[in-house]
Amino acid sequence: MAAMNSSDTKPERRRRGRRSPLASVALVLTGLLITGGAYALMSAAAPANASVDLSSAQSIQQGKKLFAANCATCHGLDLAGSSSGPSLIGVGAAAVDFQVGTGRMPLAQDAPQAEVKPRVFDETQTLQMAAYVASISPGPGIPASSNLTLTGDATKGAELFRINCAMCHNVAGAGGALTEGKYAPNLMNTTPAHIYEAMLTGPQNMPVFNDQNITPQEKQDIITALKTQNKDAGVGGFELGSLGPVAEGLFIWIFGLGAVVAFTVWLTAKGH
Description:
Elements: H1 2-17, H2 21-45, H3 57-70, H4 72-75, H5 92-101, H6 123-136, H7 154-164, H8 166-169, E1 176-177, E2 183-184, H9 192-201, H10 216-231, H11 245-271
Antiparallel strand pairs: 1-2
Helix pairs in contact: 3-6, 5-6, 5-9, 7-10, 9-10
């Protein structure tokens, strides 16, 4: 009897000592959640550009190293340019932040226009290169956060956009085709800072809208109008890409007239 009790308890002890496979999975998932949450909190608490002073010698020196390794081949270390890239003298920090911050630079391939793509450098590195370029030759600076608050007059901004920008970017900011394979990009997903910098620097085919042409307040009005329009839901049926009367006319021509022709053919066949 005692022997039976002793042999019966051994398997029971083994079963009690064994960990369930589900417990292992739950432990791993808990660890991943804790690690990911901690990383997210640390990232949110320390923005990339918080420690970047564009006028500090350290930022300029770091920017010079990054520029020499990645940009000087085309633009020259003295920013004078070459046969492979234009001069950067006078473009200022705003142009660097726009071109590098949107991934247009470094250029991926020779094309009619620099494409938007995932950025190669993080925000700190971008600002350090901007600091170096600005230290060599002054130019338009990165806009102050007070000009990017989206508290402008959206009605006035929409009017200014129609007068100055809609002929290329479309009245809805959806972009449009230009000549020789170039195009005006869609502005819906562009950040307020990059829109402001594009107006300041006139990248590629875009004209320069300096503070004398369009004041800082008017720039903020335009950005407010674009972002307000981006938030509003489309009304009146299909948006058709928000490309205006050309797209709408093409839709009616193809589908509307096509339906009329198809109905006419059906009636004729039925009559026969």
